Fold this sequence. Notes:
Elements: H1 10-15, E1 20-29, E2 37-42, E3 47-50, H2 54-70, E4 74-79, E5 85-94, E6 98-102, H3 106-117, E7 121-125, H4 127-130, E8 145-149, H5 152-164, E9 169-172, E10 186-187, H6 199-214, H7 222-227, E11 229-233, H8 237-248, E12 252-257, H9 273-276, E13 278-281, E14 284-289, H10 295-300, E15 304-308, H11 313-318, E16 322-325, E17 342-346, E18 351-352, E19 358-360, E20 371-372, E21 375-376, E22 395-397, E23 402-406, E24 413-414, E25 419-423, E26 426-429, E27 434-439, E28 445-446, E29 451-456, H12 469-487
Parallel strand pairs: 6-7, 6-8, 8-9, 9-10, 11-12, 11-16, 12-15, 14-15, 16-17, 17-19
Antiparallel strand pairs: 1-2, 1-5, 2-3, 4-5, 13-14, 18-21, 19-20, 22-29, 23-25, 23-28, 24-27, 25-26, 27-29
Helix pairs in contact: 3-6, 8-12
Amino acid sequence: MRSTYLFDGAEQKEREGLGIAIVTLLKKSGIASRDVSRMIVYSDGSTSGTIGGGDVERTVVKDAMLAIKDGKSGRKEYRNRHKGVLDIMIDVVSQEKKAIIFGSGHVSRALKEVLSFLHFHVLIVDSFLSGRGDDFSSSDADLNTAIIFTDHESRNMYYDEALKSDAFYIGALSSRVKPPMEGERIFSPSGLDIGAESPEEVAVSIASEVLASLNKRRGISMKEERRRFIIVRGAGDLATAVIIRLKRAGYNVLALETERPSVIRRTVSLAEAVYDKEAVVEGEKAVLIDSIHEVFQSFDRGLIPILIDENGSTIEALKPTVVVDAIIAKRNLGTKIDDAPLTIALGPGFTAGCDVDVVIETKRGHSLARIIREGSAIENTGVPGIIEGYGKERVIHSPADGVIRNMRKIGDIVKKDDIIAYVGPTPVMASIDGMLRGLIRTGYECHKGLKIADIDPRGDKAEYTTMSDKARSISGSVLEVVDSFFSCPNKWK
């Protein structure tokens, strides 16, 4: 028997929108009818091949159908009635994709053709043809189902049931001049703006939006997607706020960091991904990547990529539309105004119109987050912003050269003169009473005078797990500048 017989009809099954899983018997122990075997299971329960039949195979088929629905492969052991153990791998190749179209007009027929071509299993529901109004219930649509209403009658009849379903897409054909249907889940008018007029063009427009929704994409042009690419130098606490604010506004953001970030507000700094491979701040996840080839793959997964690149050479290689220098080094470490069509820098050390296009003020006070298009930010005074009457007392610097060993952790309430760490044999004392809001990573090689800790005098009223008010203000100004640039780029250069 030829080895490829298993795949007979698989292409046709996929064209019909059925999901596919390959089931492989990896090994067995005890009594079992086969040593090594394989079968294909489709989402409708049909199969090709066998792993031995009987109760185990029936159970495996059910499990494979559930795996296809969830889109999750897995490995599991099964016991047969002879107490034999079968080690089986269920590998989901493709998920079932379904579309339920309400109405049977010209758009419905064109949409069926387009979605069928895209391997959706398409069902048309038309109460006028059936003479019934119970042709659909919410249980007919799962997480892999798209629902499209193409006429008002069907929408009025089935809308409530559609909302009860788990469908990933619910769309309604409608004119743009009519009020949209209410509800965040509803795509109304349905379709992407491609200037569609004929039924076939409308079908392509709707099908494109369905695919974008299924793949969790925004449905904008590839050119625009690439244009909305931003590189942020740094991933400390202020840079993290900028990165997150930009990402949530729909921009793709790559962060560049050093091999040994010296951040102290580690609980709100995505730079921690350099050490731990990943970091999460306010629900946004960053991952450490090894090369530029992983950047856009990370964006596809909804992640924030972080690349070790202290000198910013990636900027020339990838040519982003915007570069934000958020290193907060109080001096320019190499960012140039021609690095990108728009360049922004945070804090002192830069001159707008010379080093970069825009500077954002970072000093607390009346001018915090001011957008500067000519000139520089306030010079660094070396004195931190005042909180509860404390300024420079809040910040602790390394008393000596050496490796730090932390005795307390971020979030701890400390008293003045408590030992919070050791640098080599030298103790590091709390400078004031309050909450330890920042503390450099234990094991870090410190030099004398390095900023290593931050105490918030507000004590247990302080917050250390979310972005600060300062970070939110600065990131808001960066977003304002970026949005303005993308809306009216010709006004800038």
